Predict the structure of HAD family hydrolase.
Amino acid sequence: MNFPVLAITLDLDDTLWPFAPIGARLDQVLHDWMRAHSPATAAMYPVEAMRELRVRTWADNPQLHHDLSELRRLSLREALERSGASLDLLEPAFDAFYAARNQVEFYPDALAALRRIAARVPVAALSNGNADLARIGIGELFAFQLGAREHGAAKPDPGIFHAACARLGVAHAQVMHVGDHAEMDVAGAIRAGLRGCWINRESHPWTHTGLQPDLQFDTLTGLADWLDANATVHPH
């Protein structure tokens, strides 16, 4: 299949690196931080209790689902307040969380493939999460990063895809969004008028009747190879 791709928008979590190991480590990092700085909070909220508080905070605040940082702050604030700790600890606790959140381990293929893709077309990061490309050390490979928090709505809302296309200065149909999530990334992008590329590392079945990914690969290397073979020459 050959069609012009003049720019790419790229999901981050579970596309460039797996999120599950980060999530598991975050719970422990925060607990260790509380044990050192607010033992009463750590005692009242061991790892499992803090996880339950985080789930409840998510359920109680649907208006903030596009802002994972604010949701995390809300759960930390409640834990500190209920355990009688000073709210002066809120931002330092968040900082400890955020430093650990940006310690990622790339999929084996991802970084080399990303470098190849970024050398070929402009790449914009388009994420519902709160990763920081500069902290992770790959900011120079991206034209920009647009998060759900900054935009005010999360994928698959078409507005976030359209905002990225506008910033790239490329027509919707010539931008390909690349990600792991069948609904939020691929179907969302296609409904918004973009091309959709599914990075399906674990061979999940496609279940969206009436929609098909424009491209599907089990690694990001597959996309880099496709771009090399179907290059549209243009300045950027």
